[in-house]
């Protein structure tokens, strides 16, 4: 099986409080984009999980793809089969676009079929939240208004514009941002109707700019071309366009030191589109 593993954008991110366990309560709008990694899954008779290629400075046991597979092992019906997973990486790490969480969710969805676990999407999402707060939205596969730590999802239908996504040459520390005493933690909660009509802001933006000069430089550059937003805790920034041509025109002028992509918003995860085709093809 071969599946795309898409990125997501936080169209806004409000921090509404902090729980006693240290996790933050938030509200956000998740939307998928058609920029994807690709995962290849091959069953074998070795009854183990292997991941390739190795990622520098990331032990296999810490890889979310490996963790997702091991999490699903107790549920597999094909108990004698292991799996070899090959990851073609395109999504930048540390960009706030959910690449690791997406890879984990794609692994859960794929192995649920290949190992005949027969778990519901809701059960897979419950398992996935152990790996990261963003995993459930990738498992469920729809654009969503999210609350809690990001796991309470309400399905929404959003416009599907084109986005110019820019990754400055830096890695933002999520831990640093969420533990900073100056992080806004009391943004008033909003209703879903407000979120869909008026949108919101990203409470992490000012701190990310403060600690990461590269992000601040890119933000100020992009500000000349529209309403710049930060996704997650960064480092990726994005602009919204009505058509691909306008987005490409701006991308063509971006300094070479930054990575940039023009991509399209999606209301259904590309993973689910391809997985459903695979299921239909392999019925019976």
UniProtKB/TrEMBL annotation:
GO terms for molecular function: 4-(cytidine 5'-diphospho)-2-C-methyl-D-erythritol kinase activity; ATP binding. It holds the Pfam family GHMP_kinases_N. The active site is at residues 8, 134. GO terms for biological process: isopentenyl diphosphate biosynthetic process, methylerythritol 4-phosphate pathway; terpenoid biosynthetic process. Pathway: Isoprenoid biosynthesis; isopentenyl diphosphate biosynthesis via DXP pathway; isopentenyl diphosphate from 1-deoxy-D-xylulose 5-phosphate: step 3/6. Residues 196-258 form the GHMP kinase C-terminal domain. Its EC number is 2.7.1.148. The keyword Nucleotide-binding applies. InterPro entries: GHMP_kinase_C_dom, GHMP_kinase_C_sf, GHMP_kinase_N_dom, IspE, Ribosomal_Su5_D2-typ_SF, Ribsml_uS5_D2-typ_fold_subgr. ATP binds at residues 92-102. Catalyzes the phosphorylation of the position 2 hydroxy group of 4-diphosphocytidyl-2C-methyl-D-erythritol. HAMAP family: IspE. This is 4-diphosphocytidyl-2-C-methyl-D-erythritol kinase. The lineage of its organism: Bacteria, Pseudomonadati, Pseudomonadota, Gammaproteobacteria, Oceanospirillales.
């Amino acid at each position: 099986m071969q599946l795309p593993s898409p990125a997501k954008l936080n169209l806004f991110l409000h921090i509404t409080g902090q729980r006693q366990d240290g996790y933050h309560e938030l509200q956000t709008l998740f939307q998928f984009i058609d920029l994807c990694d690709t995962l290849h899954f091959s069953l074998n008779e070795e009854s183990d999980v292997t991941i390739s290629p190795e990622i520098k400075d990331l032990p296999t046991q810490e890889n979310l793809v490996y963790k997702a597979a091991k999490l699903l092992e107790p549920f597999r019906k094909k108990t004698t089969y292991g799996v070899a997973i090959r990851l073609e990486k395109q999504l930048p790490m540390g960009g706030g676009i959910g690449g690791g969480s997406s890879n984990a969710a794609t692994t859960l969805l794929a192995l649920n079929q290949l190992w005949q676990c027969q778990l519901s999407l809701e059960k897979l999402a419950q398992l996935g939240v152990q790996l990261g707060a963003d995993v459930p939205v990738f498992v469920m596969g729809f654009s969503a208004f999210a609350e809690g730590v990001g796991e309470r999802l309400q399905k929404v239908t959003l416009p599907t514009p084109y986005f110019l996504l820019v990754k400055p040459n830096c890695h933002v520390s999520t831990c640093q941002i969420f533990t900073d005493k100056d992080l806004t933690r009391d943004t008033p909660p909003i209703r879903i109707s407000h979120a869909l009509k008026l949108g919101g802001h990203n409470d992490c933006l000012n701190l990310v700019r403060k600690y990461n000069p590269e992000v601040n430089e890119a933000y100020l550059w992009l500000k000349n071309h529209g309403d710049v937003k930060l996704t997650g805790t960064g480092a990726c920034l994005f602009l919204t366009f009505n058509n691909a041509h306008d987005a490409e025109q701006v991308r063509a002028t971006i300094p070479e030191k930054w990575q940039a992509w023009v991509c399209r918003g999606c209301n259904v995860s590309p993973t689910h589109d391809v997985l459903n085709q695979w299921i239909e093809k392999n019925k019976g």
